[in-house]
Task: structure prediction
Amino acid sequence: MRSRGLRGELATDERIGAGNVLARVLAHGADPAGPGLTFDTAVDGHPAELPLTLGQLDERVAARAAWLHERGIKPRDPVAVWATAAADMVLSYLALTRLGAIPALMNGRLRPEIAAEYIRRLRGVGVLADDAHLALLADHDLGVPVLGTPAQAGTGDPAAAPEHYRHHADDPVVITHTSGTTGVPKAVLHSHASLFAATRHLLTMPQAQGTRRILNALPAPHTATVLMVNQALGNRAEMFLLSDQGGERVLDAIQRWRPDGVFGFSVTWAELARFDLAAYDLASVSLWFNTGDCSHEPHVRRLVAVGSRDVLTREGITRVPGSVFIDGLGSSEMGHSMFHITHRADTDRYGRCVGRPYQFAKVAVLTADGDPAPAGEVGWLGIDSPSLFRGYWNDSATTYRFRQRGWYLTGDLVYADAEGRYYHLDRAVDSVDAGDGRRFYTALSEERVLAACPDVTDCTVVIASGADGVVTDVLLELAAGADPAADRTARVRAALGPDVGATLRRVVPVDSADIPVTVTGKVRKVVLRERYLTEAPS
Result:
């Protein structure tokens, strides 16, 4: 009963936000011996995979806050954090926000020259980086001093930490970054209130099945992990955070830690689809939660076929085989998924349906002029939500370029059906204007190819418009045992449909390593278009 009461108190707490959830949970009387967070690496001598209690977590955060405070870090100071371990990212975030500073969390897979330029553009006051990343930055001018490593920050004296900074709702609280599909990622700023808006709403709802023991397979520096940490703390849930989101690492963690919910991006579900899931013990999982890009039907179907969940029957609550997959569409800028749809083994609404908006979000399908598009007509996705980012840090020109008539334009092309469900067709930059009012969509084409080719685990469709017209190349990642020499052209052409199928140039089996991706696993289709337009057909 206490857990449900605490959630209600947090939902109505006017002081709580993304910068002080840990402090406010303790202030409302949560048991310090209760769950904090679990990391896959050691923390200040605390063994890897041994849970930190709430009190221990607060102490480790206070130690870092004291160390940073001694080095002159003050409210509103931007501090870049570049590391690999989830513990380094999350504890640095919690410590810096305790001081009222602004952590700028950076994905550890950024190329050093990109990371250095990103740090320079932040115009912050310093950098925290682990040893491996400090070595990568050694030959670069960052424009700011290196403060030290996250491990060094853990040597601070918790008793010397200053009082928790009192945030205003509009205070900047964290900078994360986009995937960087075209170069240096955009720095996405969230406020104390904006990044807690969705969590506040969810705290007013009954706690969902699959959210009491969570495996976080989201990249640690991403907005989504910041959200999930605060949701887990508010729900008084257990959470195990992975530093590596590869498929084998995730499956191993599920078997050992036995979560009831696994949270990740679509790239992770695609990796899991390459494995024989029946060979793993996944019975504990009742919920798979996806955010970022929406997921492909074959990947979802493989996941909902495993695991188990509780259902209410005439005999009471019964555990039955099969899990639930909640899909949606989100981004760093949105501050949370804007849509949700639930899949089970017995559901059949796919075709890139992302469902309906959350109650806290307003969405629209807009024409190029910013007018509402009628049901069934493809247009630009516009968002208006209290969870939206505050802008791109040090880049007001880009911030306002994506605003139109009060809407934030996400860059996605969608349509709504007559029942108010939304369907995601593609990123606008990945689609191609084929003339005569036609537009070809890569993501929708990939969905159709995967549904038609059971021996393909993933695929990438590259559609490009050149001097000779529109051409389409389809890159197939084959399932284990599939014949790479088999001719799948006719099947792929039929799946693409008559319009796109007429532009099909070649079908190419590839390894996953052949596909250029961003630091979060998104395919860099701009690079692929350039590559395939300059190559001779084979």
